[in-house]
């Protein structure tokens, strides 16, 4: 009989290389927001995959980037700090770049310095020719002794079992840290905040989204007059400027309504119950440099 294995796996990579899309594929549930904009993941999210002979706990880290605020510095510290503490690293690279970029060089050097077991995942193979993929594989083989190099497209889940098998092979015997029906350790409150932020990132113009954060003030369940379960949720979108506030609200409240409706529909699917979602927009200048706010993005 096979021995049960378990372990923690950090998913690291530059911003916008497909980390969150991959982790959602592997888990089979939505645990990380996915938007085609950089730095969408701010905190380290734990996601759990339960298999017959193993439990794999993924930690989806913020994308590696050059920080310009205390929030950015915290995100970077989180990514590097976790990489040193886990059992295995899953390093995601955009192989369509066809080269080791400056950002990837920094990550590679970090991996070398901590000398951690690492699986390299070459994402976005759908964007380049097969011959080019082989060249990229050879290029990275010369850089580090990876446990495996797996070319994939995170848009498809056909490589899921290959990745999970390779991870399981590299884990040690150990206990299940979470119940088998759990797939994330995020609270419902955190999920609500992340989904509202995802919809804002999706719908808003380029200059606004990364200057916002969401805070849930109230989350209470009750019964409707028909006896159905419903969550009353009240949240605030904080932004950096009055001009941003106007854009988030939109003409006659149209943009805010779009964000709230999209978030409500998604949350009802995720939480399996009706949601009464109310959202306000407030200005809080320089929040990205305020310690009492960015501490919520630190990994515990």
- Integer tally of domains: 2
Main sheet, how many strands, which sense, barrel?
7 strands, mixed
- Enter the CATH topology name of the largest domain: Rossmann fold
Ranges where pLDDT stays below 50 over 5 or more residues in a row are: 33-43, 64-72
The level-1 CATH class of the largest domain: Alpha Beta
SSE order, as H and E?
EHEEHEHEHEHEHEEHHEH
Radius of gyration: 20 Å
Structural class: alpha/beta
- Helix content range of the residues, please? 25-40%
Portion of residues in beta strands equals: 15-25%
> How many helices in DSSP terms?
9
What is the averaged pLDDT score? 81
Beta strands, count:
10
Fourth-level CATH superfamily of the largest domain: P-loop containing nucleotide triphosphate hydrolases
CATH architecture of the largest domain, by name, is: 3-Layer(aba) Sandwich
Shape: globular
Q: What is the terminal-to-terminal distance?
A: 35 Å
Task: Explain the overall architecture.
Mean pLDDT is 81; it is low at 33-43 and 64-72. It contains 9 helices and 10 strands. Strands 1, 2, 3, 4, 5, 6 and 7 form a 7-stranded mixed beta sheet that branches. A 3-stranded mixed beta sheet has the order 8-9-10. The radius of gyration is 20 Å and the shape is globular. Helix 4 (130-141) links the parallel strand 5 and strand 6 (148-151). It is an alpha/beta fold and 300 residues long. The relative contact order is 0.14. Helix 6 (188-203) crosses helix 8. It has helices at residues 19-27, 70-85, 102-114, 130-141, 160-169, 188-203, 242-249, 254-271, 291-294; strands spanning 5-13, 45-51, 54-60, 88-94, 118-123, 148-151, 172-173, 213-223, 229-239, 274-283. The chain has 2 domains: 5-173, P-loop containing nucleotide triphosphate hydrolases (Rossmann fold), CATH 3.40.50.300; 188-297, K homology (KH) domain (GMP Synthetase, Chain A, domain 3).
């Amino acid at each position: 009989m096979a021995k049960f294995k378990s372990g923690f796996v950090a998913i690291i990579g530059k911003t916008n290389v497909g980390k969150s899309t991959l982790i959602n594929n592997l888990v089979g549930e939505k645990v990380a927001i996915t938007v085609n904009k950089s730095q969408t993941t701010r905190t380290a999210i734990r996601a759990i995959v339960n298999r017959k002979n193993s439990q794999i706990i993924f930690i989806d880290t913020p994308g590696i980037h050059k920080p310009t605020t205390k929030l950015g510095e915290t995100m970077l510290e989180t990514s590097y700090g976790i990489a040193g503490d886990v059992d295995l690293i899953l390093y995601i690279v955009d192989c369509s770049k066809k080269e080791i970029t400056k950002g990837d060089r920094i990550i590679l050097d970090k991996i070398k310095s901590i000398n951690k077991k690492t699986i390299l995942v070459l994402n976005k193979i759908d964007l380049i020719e097969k011959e080019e993929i082989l060249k990229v594989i050879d290029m990275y083989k010369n850089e580090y002794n990876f446990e495996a190099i797996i070319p994939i497209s995170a848009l498809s889940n056909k490589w899921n079992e290959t990745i999970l098998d390779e991870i399981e092979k590299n884990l040690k015997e150990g206990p299940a840290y979470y119940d088998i029906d759990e797939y994330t350790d995020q609270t419902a409150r955190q999920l609500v905040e992340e989904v509202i932020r995802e919809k804002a990132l999706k719908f808003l113009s380029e200059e606004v989204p990364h200057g916002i954060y969401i805070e849930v003030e109230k989350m209470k369940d009750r019964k409707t007059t028909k006896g159905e379960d419903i969550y009353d949720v009240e949240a605030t979108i904080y932004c950096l400027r009055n001009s941003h506030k106007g854009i988030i609200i939109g003409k006659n409240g149209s943009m805010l309504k779009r964000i709230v409706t999209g978030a409500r529909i998604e949350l009802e699917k995720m939480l399996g119950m009706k949601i009464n979602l109310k959202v306000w927009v407030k200005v809080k200048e320089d929040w990205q440099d305020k310690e009492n706010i960015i501490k919520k993005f630190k990994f515990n």
